[in-house]
Design brief:
The structure is a homodimer. Chain A is an alpha/beta fold. Chain A folds into three domains: 64 residues, Winged helix-like DNA-binding domain superfamily/Winged helix DNA-binding domain (Arc Repressor Mutant, subunit A), CATH 1.10.10.10; 133 residues, Nucleotidyltransferase, domain 5 (2-Layer Sandwich), CATH 3.30.420.40; 173 residues, Nucleotidyltransferase, domain 5 (2-Layer Sandwich). The first copy, chain A, is built from 14 helices and 15 strands. In chain A, the strands form four sheets. In chain A, strands 6-5-4-7-10 form a five-stranded mixed beta sheet, with helices on both faces. In chain A, strands 13-12-11-14-15 form a five-stranded mixed beta sheet, sandwiched between helices. The longest helix of chain A is centred in the last third of the chain and has 25 residues. At the A-B interface, strand 12, helix 11 and helix 13 of A face strand 12, helix 11 and helix 13 of B.
């Protein structure tokens, strides 16, 4: 796709078709403030670019039945979500529906060259599966702060070897299409906004609890990235001045007390020290424990596992209470790997928020689990690049 | 003023003239994306409304010298900043320069009727002083959360009798002009952005430490008010789980440990218990201690007063560190009554933020005192209403 909208009306029409599917001209006319003739001109121009095509006949609104228009069924976006320990790759159509999706364990600490080799192999596999020949654009998420305009990770704590690596440029060359790079948490927020639980939300927080912990901040429908791209970096907020040492050098950081990594560590220690027969059995069976084991042990009624989740939920809730008082969001979404901990986590977290934040801020505040699971990030990645391509700048 | 801009170009031109003073047509043309003829049409229409007038001759740019245009020198905005214990009222011209300003001690707990009687008397005094006959619009700040569209305080903790009082409507009727109502902290942020230390900042926090403590949140140049208008309500963020009981019913709230009210209480206790000869002398002299006395005692080298300020700065810094990690602002402004505590406060606060927040968020983060002092709020109030009047909606 080389075509781009040539004015703001066209950009708006493209986004309407992306988010609402096929429309008749009359329906589009109801959504944009354009005279019928001006609308006709813009739609015709979009048809000429090939971004938009004629579709079936629309339902009659009294007069002659007209053709609907839709985004080209040829358009393909690529979404890549690089986590600390796994990678998701997906192909979407122009409406950002996932046509194909792969997930593989990949350790981000292998560095950008090795990781992108794997990513490109996954892309090839999806291409071979027939979902796409080429891509019109790609969005890439990485688990660390990103200088957004350049698409370059900046001092990402859990990504050795990635600092300053030109992800946007390098992948743009490999893929032969426009690329944007963002923090994985921002992409999860965009994904849930596009197709998940935050669909109509304009001001919300999306807390991702995975290997680490981070927060996507959406203000007025847009991701707030902050002055240096590190907004939402809540993993190192102090929850206990006398708490655990954190890798960052401080004491009592949220992430040191509750995250996928902290859960794995606590569960292993408990298993070895005989404090949880359930976890000990799982450790003996697999040689390693993760948050998934904690979730399973809790589901089996293991008290130690349940306590771990309750305590972690309380600590996270304490931080979210502060953010709710400060930011007064309309919705809080909890996502990431540990959402397998589900309603025990949510209950403990809600208790803290409703107890600690002022009633005015929590009176109408849903705190809910994300809906999209593993495709949240890749959906957000496709949304990110399509927002860029369907805009004028 | 009944005239309003009739399109977005006119609105933009009015704001340019407000913020940049008189412009020649050529200078305006450089600032807006309009053809010379279209610009001419819009400027002529604004001249017809009387919002804009011809001014002197502009410096030559080669051709014939042309007249500059400016906002009408007849325009007057009213800014009212109601604090917990005092009220500021000011009259500004169209460029938001303060032409007259009054400050009086008023206890907000007297309720809206009594307070507005005083406010209107102050307005009359300014009118009699000759700065204005009538007003084209007024902005009102109150020390509590506000349902912004309606201009109604909502459950404001330190404002008994104000809950649901129709401030916007009541004052609009009294003053005979459009009125907008907002939280006092948001107005301080707008004031510092308009004419103070945050002049070019787009994403910043403005922490007001007065009788209570609150935070104005500016995102992309706009005040972020949150889902229910309570964004920035940071006074009840917990800084110590075993801390002091707060009026809100929780324990260890920031405001219970550090604010004008907390300082006055701590200083009085120390004076009575013989822990500070300096404060004891001041209490004996005036019968009451405030944050001003703590500042004076600190300036005189009183160790107890210095410790109070250092400890309060550290607690506030602890909260700001969290907000900085989360929000990644480009600037933090400290304002309000206790800025008299000045550099001792700032030093202690900075230490916490730079120690606790990640380097990426603090690497380029100025933490500075506000510049406008008592006129920050009223300037912000005038800015608020002029933004509204110089817009299309």
């Amino acid at each position: 796709m080389t075509a781009r909208p040539s004015n703001a009306h066209q950009a708006r029409l493209l986004r309407l078709l992306r988010d609402g599917g096929p429309h008749s001209r009359a329906q589009l006319g109801d959504r944009v403030r354009l005279s019928r003739s001006k609308l006709g001109v813009e739609v015709d121009r979009l048809l000429e670019t090939g971004l938009v095509v004629m579709d079936g006949l629309a339902a009659s609104r009294g007069g002659r039945r007209s053709h609907t228009v839709r985004l080209s069924p040829q358009l393909r976006f690529l979404g890549v979500d690089i986590g600390a320990t796994s990678v998701d790759v997906a192909v979407t159509n122009a409406e950002l529906e996932v046509l194909g999706h792969l997930n593989e364990p990949v350790d981000v600490r292998q560095g950008p060259v090795a990781v992108f080799e794997r990513v490109l192999a996954m892309v090839d596999a999806l291409r071979d599966g027939g979902t796409a020949q080429g891509f019109d654009g790609a969005g890439i998420g990485v688990p660390g702060p990103v200088r957004f305009p350049e698409g370059v990770p900046v001092a990402p704590p859990i990504m050795p070897g990635w600092d300053g690596f030109p992800v946007r440029e390098a992948l743009g060359q490999e893929l032969g299409c426009p690329v944007l790079v963002d923090n994985d948490v921002n992409l999860m927020a965009l994904g849930e906004q596009q197709a998940g639980v935050a669909r109509s939300a304009r001001d919300f927080l999306c807390v991702k609890i995975g290997t680490g912990i981070g927060c996507g901040v959406v203000v007025g429908g847009e991701v707030h990235r902050g002055a240096t791209g590190s907004a939402g970096d809540i993993g190192h907020i102090q929850v206990d001045p006398q708490g655990r040492r954190c890798a960052c050098g401080n004491r009592g950081c949220l992430e040191a007390h509750f995250s996928g990594a902290a859960l794995a560590r606590d569960a292993s220690a408990a298993a070895r020290e005989g404090r949880s027969p359930e976890l000990a059995g799982r450790l003996a069976a697999s040689g390693e424990l993760t948050a998934v084991d904690v979730a399973a042990a809790a589901a089996a009624g293991d008290e130690f596992a349940l306590d771990l989740i309750r305590e972690g939920g309380a600590r996270t809730g304490q931080v979210i209470a502060t953010l709710v008082s400060f930011f007064n969001p309309g919705l809080v979404v909890i996502g990431g790997g540990v959402t397998g901990l589900g309603h025990t986590l949510l209950a403990s977290l809600r208790t803290q928020v409703y107890r600690r934040s002022l009633p005015l801020a929590t009176g109408n505040l849903p705190i809910v689990l994300g809906e999209l699971g593993q495709v949240a990030g890749v959906t957000g990645a496709a949304r990110l690049i399509s927002d860029h391509l369907f805009s004028v700048d």
